[in-house]
Amino acid sequence: MMKKSTDIRTLKSIVTPSRYTIPDTKGLHLWTRNDLKKYWVLRYTFRAKRYDMSLGSFPDLTLSDAKAKVQKLRSQISNDVNPMDVKKEKKESDKNQTARITFKEFALPYIETMSPKWSNSKHASQWENTLNTYAFPLIGNISLEAITTKHIVAMNGMYANRLQNP
Fold first, then answer.
1. What pTM, to 2 d.p., does this model score?
2. How far, in Å, CA of 82 to CA of 79, rounded?
3. Which residues contact 83 (CB under 8 A, 6 or more apart)?
4. Which of 56, 114, 119, 136 is the most exposed, fewest CB within 10 Å of its CB?
């Protein structure tokens, strides 16, 4: 176990890989790995199951910041919310937000990338004009995953109307 002192010099001087308990904050530990990297971890029990939740690396996350995080997380636990579930949901949401690219964000760079390979330089402008007329008004701001057959049929209908009523 760690000395009772938790000042920055004591924490930085730890060189033995182990889990060190912070005595004045229930569940807060400083874990030191074999490569001597150190991480703040909250060990808690939620509905009879034990969890170890990473809070951040030391010294990037100070002891006082780690204690503040623990206080917020303990508040969630007391309100019957598992902080690990909240963290997973946030991570999944962030992943979905970054993976969510719209048709327009995909199409314009694609045209730019492919245009040097086309035999006629007018093809790029033809592609852009067609997309601006038929695709972007309907699906330009829709994520690629959300585009359905109904969207494609609707664009085809717009094209057919244009041909019949120039």
1. 0.53
2. 9
3. 42, 44, 46, 51, 53, 73, 76, 77
4. 119
